[in-house]
Amino acid sequence: MVNLTNGTRLLPEVVSYCLAPTNLTQFLTNPSPPDLQVVIWEYISGAFCLFGGSANLILLILIQRSQALRRGAGILVAHLLACHVAYFAVILPLIIARVRNVTTLPRITERDCEVCRLQHFITMTCGFVIGWTDALLALNRIVGVMFPVKYRLLDRPLVHGCGLLLGWLLTLSMTIPPFFGYHSSFKMGGVGKCTYIPQNTLFVLWLSFNVYCPLAIATGSAVLISARFGLNRLTGVPQVHPRTPGVNGNAPSRNAVSRRQGKMSRMLVTSFLINFACQIPLFLLIVTNWISRYPLLSLWTICLFMVQCSSAPVIFLALNGDYRKLFVNVYGRLRGQNVAASSQPQAPSRTLAKKPTIEPRG
């Protein structure tokens, strides 16, 4: 583990730059956490890289192959899955490598801190963009359920594109200033996990807005949608949906539209419950200051975010028949091609094709 017990091995300016004061005393007075825990976390994170990255990539490819799934909110879903793929394919492997280097090297260098600053900037940008994308999906469902007549006016690529642009601007307005040393600084603990150290109240307020506003939107959407569908089921009043022309010019029935809206709403509520269950432990650890006292817990909170990102494609496939049908069709088509290629008759060899000759008898 990191050798912090010998103060001469770590320069004072590097200590002040790398380590938060709450973590510094802990590592200087107590022994480092066992290496076995870090190794177990590395293997678990590697497994999530393979599963989460593959599942999100497969579903992203399915959306790109289907024109119907790309319509409307499909743009938001594709953007969310692309962020998940980037996290599992690029960001999480870098986090694993950083933790491994910091926990095995004999000392922390200034280069480790510089890499940590860049890595944390990318990680936080991806995380907050994912949060705002979830919020946009929640707003899309609120409009579809609560204001179905106006849904066609907002369910357009231009509206979704502007929403994604706004989410990126809000995220970058918070992550770029600390990267250049404004309003906040980066600190790295003994296990290689970076964190923000706010320098003024403005950054704390803006950070809280980017953290809690998307969560509040998703929470409000899940509560309103659940209440609306529960009330409709109790009263027996069917929900009104606009009749939009289909591909062949015929308008789908209101029952079909209602079922589709119900599937999307169930997906949203299920995603919210899983995301909420994954985020609540992190909030509790921050409020109780347990992460400062037990820095190794910060690694296990990353596992919760892995579960959150890995569950999205599973929820879409489990609760949406359109995704399942397309997945089965593509898988069957690929399997059929392989079976057809293996079952094609091979051309007879020249030896077998040669006609036998009959020799005349003596």
User: Could you say what the CATH architecture is?
Assistant: Up-down Bundle
Unreliable spans: 1-15, 20-34, 240-251, 347-355
Annotation field: number of helices: 14
Distance between the termini: 93 Å
Q: Largest beta sheet: what is the strand line-up?
A: 1-2
How much of the sequence is in beta strands?
under 5%
Major sheet size, sense and barrel closure = 2 strands, antiparallel
CATH topology: Rhopdopsin 7-helix transmembrane proteins
Helix fraction bin: over 70%
Q: Count of DSSP E strands?
A: 2
What would you call the structural class?
mainly alpha
Order of helices and strands: HHHHHHHHEEHHHHHH
Highest-level CATH class: Mainly Alpha
Question: Concise description?
Answer:
With 362 residues, the chain is mainly alpha-helical.
Give a structural overview.
With 362 residues, the protein is mainly α. The chain has a single domain, classed as Rhopdopsin 7-helix transmembrane proteins (Up-down Bundle), CATH 1.20.1070.10. A two-stranded antiparallel ribbon has the order 1-2. Strand 1 and strand 2 form a beta hairpin. Helix 3 packs parallel to helix 12, helix 5 runs antiparallel to helix 6 and helix 9 runs antiparallel to helix 10. The longest helix is centred in the middle third of the chain and has 37 residues. The N terminus is likely disordered. It is a multi-pass membrane protein. It comes from Hypsibius exemplaris (Freshwater tardigrade). This is G-protein coupled receptors family 1 profile domain-containing protein. One of its GO terms (cellular component) is plasma membrane.
